[in-house]
Specification:
Blueprint: E1 6-10, H1 15-26, E2 30-35, H2 38-52, E3 57-61, H3 67-81, E4 86-89, H4 99-121, E5 130-135, H5 148-170, E6 175-182, H6 196-199, H7 206-216, H8 221-233, E7 241-245, E8 248-251, H9 259-264
Parallel strand pairs: 1-2, 1-4, 2-3, 4-5, 5-6, 6-7
Antiparallel strand pairs: 7-8
């Protein structure tokens, strides 16, 4: 991966986002670290400064559910580094009780982050091309009875990613758009199942979820970062849905897109 590249990662201060940002930095990429948690973000930036140098990363506090704040971090990233090549829409929450917020963070911000990425990178807008990774979940491939809204947002991420990737290919935007679907990952989201104020009536599933974790196993964030790098390093991939579990990394298969054929039929 070229050391001249610049990435923007949301939810970058902790867990999965931090692992992705660290892996990018280790490959020579400069990274804008975007996160709502200012303290964690500043600590993350300080740690990365010691490892990689202060000029390699930028911390920007951001509530991704805010249109204005998300637009602002994209603008600041571009102004600071002079370019943008990679966007990882990683920020996500699990809150079945406040399900509106879950939709705003997990789906709306991914859609907006993708469109902002295209605004800066698409050749249609005189950009140089690039890559967008949207974080989905196994719960976006198989409905999760214990997290119906979370599951809906992750299904939405996959549908949106595949559709906008086809659009990018048809009109030669020069931007790869792909989705990653991890299984259970060792991040703070796993602890939310223990909180009735977050799970609401689905709190009753907590023991079932723990049994599923024991059965399927829990991934480390670095394992997901490895999958993300595989996508970023393969310029042939577009509209791909990568599943990552303890069994390994696989690419989901779908029927060929028949949109253009069907649209021509009466």
């Amino acid at each position: 991966m070229s050391a001249s590249k610049v990435a923007l990662v949301t939810g970058a201060a902790l867990g999965l986002g931090k692992a992705i940002a660290e892996t990018l930095l280790s490959r020579g990429v400069k990274v804008a670290l975007c996160d709502f948690n200012r303290l964690a973000g500043e600590q993350c930036k300080s740690s990365f400064d010691q490892q990689f140098g202060a000029d390699r990363s930028l911390f920007l506090q951001c509530d991704v559910s805010s249109r204005e704040e998300l637009q602002d971090v994209f603008r600041k990233t571009y102004e600071h580094f002079g370019k943008l090549d990679i966007v990882v829409n990683n920020a996500g929450i699990n809150n079945e009780k406040d399900w509106e917020e879950t939709i705003q963070v997990n789906l709306e911000s991914v859609i907006r982050g993708t469109y902002l990425g295209l605004q800066y990178m698409s050749k249609e807008n005189d950009g140089q091309g690039g890559s967008i990774i949207n974080m989905s979940s196994i719960a976006g491939l198989v409905p999760a009875a214990h997290q119906p809204v979370y599951s809906a947002t992750k299904f939405g991420v996959i549908g949106f990613t595949r559709a906008v990737a086809a659009d990018s290919a048809k009109w030669n935007y020069g931007v790869q758009i792909n989705a990653v679907c991890p299984g259970f990952v060792n991040t703070g989201i796993l602890q939310t199942i223990e909180k009735e104020e977050i799970m609401g009536k689905y709190y009753k599933y907590k023991d079932d979820i723990k049994q599923m974790m024991d059965f399927y196993g829990i991934l480390e964030p670095s394992e997901i970062a490895t999958g993300v790098m595989q996508i970023l390093e393969d310029v042939s991939l577009n509209g791909v849905v990568m599943k990552i579990t303890k069994s390994g990394i696989t690419i989901e298969s779908y029927e060929q897109d028949t949109f253009h054929k069907s649209s021509l039929q009466p």
